[in-house]
Specification:
Strand content: under 5%
Keywords: Membrane, Transmembrane, Transmembrane helix
Protein name: DUF4345 domain-containing protein
Number of helices: 4
Distance between the termini: 18 Å
Largest sheet: none
Number of domains: 1
Organism: Amycolatopsis thailandensis
Radius of gyration: 15 Å
Number of strands: 0
């Protein structure tokens, strides 16, 4: 039961991040050369990984969710500090706040799925 709850929360984090990136892509990112396509990659990857986390009871989707969250948070940290392909953020919008929350959820709640693998997770 707890593993299903963890999977559901991780999937929600992935879908939340995908939604935030889609909204931001529609708002302004579609007009940027590199970041725009990367936002769309994030949208597709978030949806695909959410499905994988729910459907495939294996440790790989959990690991991929952690990588997704860390990579997205890392790109955002770069945009806050040195800039990321010409994009500089300031952590002032609702989308930025929700993005950080959803990506942190991916990492925090997928970690227990890796640590406590059941024998059925193969």
């Amino acid at each position: 039961m707890i593993r299903w709850l963890l999977r559901a929360v991780v999937a929600a984090g992935l879908l939340g991040s995908a939604w935030v990136h889609y909204v931001v892509w529609q708002d302004w990112a579609s007009e940027t050369a590199v970041v725009g396509p990367l936002f769309l990659v994030n949208v597709v990857a978030g949806v695909v990984l959410a499905i994988a986390v729910l459907a495939w009871h294996h440790w790989l989707p959990a690991l991929a969710a952690i990588g997704f969250g860390l990579a997205t948070l890392g790109a955002y940290a770069l945009s806050l500090t040195t800039g990321f392909f010409g994009v500089s953020e300031r952590f002032t919008s609702q989308a930025e706040i929700w993005g950080v929350i959803t990506e942190a959820v991916c990492v925090i709640f997928a970690l227990p799925l890796l640590r406590n693998r059941e024998s059925t997770d193969r």
